[in-house]
Structures are given as C-alpha cells and as structure tokens.
Amino acid sequence: VEATNIVVTGNTAQGFAYGGLFLIGTRNRVENNRLLDVNRARCGTAPLTARCNYAVAEQPDLLKSGIYLAANGGRPTTTKGNIVRGNIVTGFGIKAHCIAADHAVSLTENSISGNSCDDVPVRP
Question: Region 19-46: what's the mean pLDDT?
C-alpha cells in the first residue's frame, strides 16, 4: 500500500462505530472535514466490550480515535509529510483521542494544526 498525494477535503461524515479516518502514506492532505459522532461503540472505557476487543499492542488507539495515522494498512508503509488541518471531530472520548498514531508513526513528522476536537454524548 502506497498512498501518496491523496486529498480528503471539505467532507461531512457522521455516525462512526469506531474511528473516523485511517491515514497511511506520505504527502496526503486531510483538511476542513467534519467527522461527527465518532466512536459510537464507546471504545476505551471499562469494561471492555466484545465490539472493542481488538488488541494490537502497537495500535492501542485505533478504534477510539477521530483521525488515526498508521504505518500499516495491510502492508507496512511510511506515514509522514501529511497535512491534517482544520478538521472538526466530535464523538465519545474524542478530546483525549482526537488525532493519534501507532508507535511507528511520529506525529511531529506530519503537519497537524487547527483541528477542533470535542466530546459529545453518544446517542443510543
């Protein structure tokens, strides 16, 4: 998998059981999107439910993050030089897990700025 120069901008998507966006690759742009009602499964809270029981040591925030930067989308890849800017992300526990990365990705090697992250109650 080699995702390069992908542009995801100006979208509104609502109602995610888990994370809102899974980002891999280099020089991609994720800007001015609205990812609403993320993590409706309420992953990250105790007790751990079966629907959130995806345990991969290097990706503990995968199911509960609004935007997740990874180094493997089925095959190892490099994830750096991406722009994640001006997005609005809301959902369960999103203030603490808005933009996260697995252990093999450095957030500082990506440009992340101006994103708004807010917790909102999850509707049944």
Answer: 93
